[in-house]
Amino acid sequence: xxERDHDHDMTYLAIRPECGHAIAASVDSPECRDDxxxxxxxxxxxxxxxTRVTAQEARxxxxxxxxxxxxxxxxxxxxxxxx
Length: 83
Ligand SMILES: [Zn+2]
Description:
Blueprint: H1 3-6, E1 10-15, E2 22-27, H2 33-45, E3 49-54, H3 55-60, H4 74-82
Antiparallel strand pairs: 1-2, 1-3
This protein binds zinc ion (ZN).
């Protein structure tokens, strides 16, 4: 397969709704469709927006470099419990 052909593979791109950046991608390969479905399902479970784009579009997407949010501080959870 040439590089050019590869650019036209379809890819599932996971977008973080918090910032709109790409966070993960999974090539839609017919040989491992079950694995791809499982991966896409995990994106949805984690709250990502999943879009289907070409491999080239996935490469050129705005990839997330935002700092990851740490786990909520315990003090905040305590405050919620008290409320
Ligand atoms: Zn981001």
